[in-house]
Amino acid sequence: MPPTETFHPTFPTRTFVTVVLPLAAPRAFTYYVPEELVERVQFGVRVEVPFGRTSAAGSAGKLYSALVIEVHNRPPEGYQPKEILEVLDERPLIHPTQIELWQWMAAYYCCTLGEVMHAALPSHLKLVGETKLVLSPLHDGDHSGLSDSEYLIAEALSIQETITIDEVRGILDRKTVYPVIKSLLEKRIIYLKEDLQEKYRSKTVVCVELAEPYASDPALLHEAFERVSRSSRQEAALMAYIQLSKTKPFVLRQDICEMAQTENAAVNAIAQKGIFRLFDREVSRIGSYEEETLDMETSSPRQEKALAEVRALFAHKQTVLLHGVTGSGKTKVYMELIREVTERGGQALYLLPEIALTTQLTARLQRFFGDDIAVYHSKLNHNERVEIWNAVLAGKPVVMGARSALFLPFGKLELVIVDEEHDPSFKQNDPAPRYNGRDTAVYLAHLHQAKVLMGTATPSIESYNNALSGKYGLVEMPERFGGIQMPDIQLIDAKQEIKQRKMQSHFTTALINELKAAVERGEQAILFQNRRGYAPTYRCFSCGWHAECIHCDVSLTYHKHSNQLKCHYCGYHSKLPPECPACGNKQLSLFGFGTEKIEDEIKIYLPEGRISRMDLDTARTRNAHATIINDFEERRFDILVGTQMVTKGLDFENVGVVGVLSADQLLQFPDFRSSERAFQLMVQVAGRAGRKHKRGKVLIQAMNTAHPVLQEVIRNDYAGFYKREIAERRAFNYPPFARLIRITLKHKSAETLNDGARIFTQTLRQKLGDWVVGPAVPFVSRVRGQYLLDYLIKMDRDLRKAAYAKTSIEEATVAMQTAQGFSGIRVTVDVDPG
Ligand code: ADP
Ligand code: ZN
Ligand code: ZN
Fold first, then answer.
1. Which of 6, 185, 605, 621 has a CA that sits 20 to 30 A from residue 234's CA?
2. Minimal CA–CA distance to 448: which of 502, 514, 392, 522?
3. What are the E-state strand segments in 221-284?
4. In angstroms, how far is CA 2 from the centroid of its own chain?
């Protein structure tokens, strides 16, 4: 038989699409569009495609929903294109600017377009074969109105709890399944399986009513008054209740106290006598009638001035930094600017570091913008996410959210607010894309020719540097709103007290005295210790052994509540060994202290105070967190002990005293940002003191009181802090002078890791020369059983060089992973590490 001649097919008039798959695949792929689908395919719609190896039996590989980013006539080079099977959407899900943003992120943050897409699209919009489906709990079993295929799946799901999309293919025995799944999702008959989302609990207030028999028999009120007559405070409280109950459907305990000029204790005492009944009432956080409507109608002259300055700067700067002290009233400035944008039909995005920590602020914005605002947070379920996605696509004027809100499909974005721009939570550490929400916001705004306003009391060194160099505009609000004074910050020398043996556990005399006085005055206090658990070290006296995680290179923290040693990196926990495993000595002791111990011990010194704690152990869920804040607002306890959670944007009216238990610990962290972080944390937590009615007091305990950062904190001297810090950054070539890329190699065998790293280093150095620092064993050298090695690339901020660095890292990775025995070494790349 003569050999058949084959030519490369040329299809100049045929239609192809370039698609992104929700996978870490390094590039976009080209597919062929069959004739009958050409009409319906366009930029921004999803298509169903096979991907991966085609099996001998002729199955087409796995099916995915992929996103079309280009329709064209160029056949791919180097491979035969497969066909798309279906077009899933009639209209684009995204705008072209979004793809530009994704492409920039993939380039700048050294990751793939698929990884960015994975982060950007809500789950409903990026189905893959393993996606699990469940029947909606609301579905009533009425299957009429379903197509045959839809009926089959609904039936299957009423027998089996979950099925995967791959299994659907088997059930339907047909080539394409995504259109059916999409339709069932839209009809709300099926859901994607997800962990049960707890519903966001609303705010509660303590209300008061008369107990029986007083409630039903007004004649008995006489007797009630007699029973409280020995206390003038209780008498006044009862009187206040009677008056308030005439006009209000619900009487709040707080209102009684205000009217009767008394404390909760008086009301509680009446309840104990069986005259009052106390109960919790849920109130909507969105402007319900019983909540006092905040008087936010008029801006103060200082706010007007700041507004005018921002507007003027926006005329020729894309980005403005609003540096306003805590309590200066920045939120009102943001709200006015957002309102201006929405009034002319534009969209505004309000970004926050962590939406879960900002119930108060969310409520304030919702009252102001009502239906115009959508809040995009991590506890939304898949359906709610898609709803917001579609609302933004349809032009929702205002969106408030954490960094992932950047990915929403804005069409007319005109303004981005980045509140608390300094906050490290804007950085996503894992998984890729490891992006900074603040910096990405600047690029997003650039794509839309929109403006960015960054606000904070403690600007990041990078942003302040940009402001001083003229790249950003700068507006200052150096005073608090309403003429309230900045808190009085005092440094307390703990070393001195230890020497004089005056220290009571971890508290200096001054701190104990201030806390006592505050509680007696009916004020509240916050104690900040940036370490959770009871004690961070469990050690043997005689040989120095200490308890360490078996998977990680860190010491185990003792948690008293569970009476366990726990690893804060991987969750491993164990019982306390009764004797030293190394030398058998029975004298083992706990060292150091965390929030749990502070809570425990402050109870001893302040038996009359009511204490609560907020850290990852007590506030793991949004509800638990909201409850603690709510209870503190409602004055159900006096002292709040917590980790950095208590430093974030909370606005409590009644906090008179703030204590920082160990400033040294914040400053000793081995990182070039530790001074910056310590300064920010202390100034922010100090800002929680004395916000509404009077000057607050802040006590900072430290062993080394001479540390320059502490001096800057007590003088509230941001400028001085910046000047000293920027000089250090320059001297050691750290950001903002250099751009940093951290590369981490991981493997479960230290030997394999070291050997593989040699190949990696060689290629990397060939390409990047002395930009490369390392490899070095990081501070925590092993996590979850994986040994780690770090490289730091220090380079200047030229974007072309960034692209070069990205390809060089990819080449070094390939060189190592293709060498015999090293394919299992994982490489993660973190640009601008936090
Ligand atoms: P910042 O965000 O700058 O720390 P906030 O915006 O939270 O400060 O304002 C501090 C306090 O001042 C808040 O309790 C807020 O309710 C109040 N406040 C700010 N602006 C006004 C205004 N124009 N009218 C009434 N109260 C205001
Ligand atoms: Zn020992
Ligand atoms: Zn561990």
1. 605
2. 392
3. 251-252, 276-283
4. 67
| 480 Cα–ligand 1 center, Å | 8
Q: How many CB atoms lie within 10 A of CB 782?
A: 19
**CB half-sphere exposure, 721, CA atoms < 13 A:** 27
From the CA of 587, which ligand is nearest? 2
Binding site membership of 649 for ligand 1 (Cβ less than 6 Å) = no
The answer to whether the CB of 254 falls within 8 A of the CB of 205 is yes
CA distance 384 to 122: 10
Mean pLDDT of 270-281: 88
Indicate which residue's Cα is closest to atom 23 of ligand 1.
299
Rg (CA), the chain: 31
User: Residue 310's closest CA among 300, 323, 297?
Assistant: 323
Mutate to test the pocket of ligand 1, among 323, 325, 352, 481 (most ligand atoms within 8 A of CB): 481
Say whether pLDDT at 138 is over 70: no
Query: What does the CA dihedral 571, 575, 577, 582 come to, rounded to 10 degrees?
Result: -30
Q: Which residues pair with 398 in a beta bridge?
A: 348, 373
494 CA → ligand 2 middle, Å:
30
Q: Are 578 and 516 in contact (CB under 8 A)?
A: no
Among left, alpha and beta (phi > 0; psi -120 to 50; other), residue 107 is alpha
**Residue 328 CA, closest ligand 1 atom number:** 3
The answer to whether residues 697 and 688 touch, using CB atoms and an 8 Å cutoff, is: no
Q: Long-range contact list for 137-143, CB < 8 A, 24+ apart?
A: 138/188, 139/188, 139/189
Closest CA to 810 of 745, 764, 742: 764
Residue 787, classed as helix, strand or coil, is strand
How does DSSP classify residue 638? S
Instruction: Compute the distance from residue 306 Cα to the ligand 1 centre, in Å.
Output: 14
| Residues contacting 768, CB < 8 A, separation 6+ | 793, 795, 805, 808
Cα–Cα dist 286/362, whole Å? 9
CB of 481 closer than 6 A to ligand 1? yes
This prediction's pTM: 0.83
Q: Determine contact, residues 592/619, Cβ cutoff 8 Å.
A: no
Q: Residue with structure tokens 């007319």?
A: 412
Q: Does the Cβ of 480 fall within 6 Å of ligand 1?
A: no
Per-residue pLDDT tens over the stretch 419-463:
999 999 999 998 889 999 999 999 999 999 999 999 999 999 999
pLDDT above 90 for 724: yes
- The answer to whether 259 and 208 have CB atoms below 8 angstroms apart is no
Are 739 and 804 in contact by the 8 Å Cβ rule? The answer is no
Query: For residue 225, with 0-12 CB atoms within 10 Å meaning exposed, 13-18 middle and 19 or more buried, which class applies?
Result: middle
Ligand 1 pocket residue status of 791, Cβ below 6 Å: no
CB of 330 sitting under 6 A from ligand 1:
yes
Comparing 385-389, 397-401, 559-563, 733-737, the range with the smallest average pLDDT is 385-389
324 C-beta closer than 6 A to ligand 1: yes
Contact 789, 757 (CB under 8 A): yes
pLDDT digits (tens, 9 = 90+) for 451-479: 999 999 999 999 999 999 999 999 999 99
Specify whether the CB–CB gap between 49 and 84 falls below 8 A. yes
Identify which of 778, 776, 831, 779 has the alpha carbon closest to the alpha carbon of residue 805. Answer: 831
Measure 20 CA to ligand 1 centroid, in angstroms: 45
Task: Report yes or no: 621 and 198 within 8 Å, Cβ to Cβ.
Answer: yes
Q: What is the DSSP string of 138-163?
A: T--S--TT--HHHHHHHHHHHHSSEE
Residue with tokens 């056949």: 75
Q: H or E segment at 729?
A: helix 718-731
Which among 303, 454, 633, 651 is the best mutation to test ligand 1's pocket, defined by most ligand atoms within 8 Å of the CB?
651
Q: What percent of the chain is modeled with pLDDT above 90?
A: 56
Using the structure block, give the residue that is written with the tokens 């002791």. 589
Write the burial class of residue 217 (CB in 10 Å: 0-12 exposed, 13-18 middle, 19+ buried).
exposed
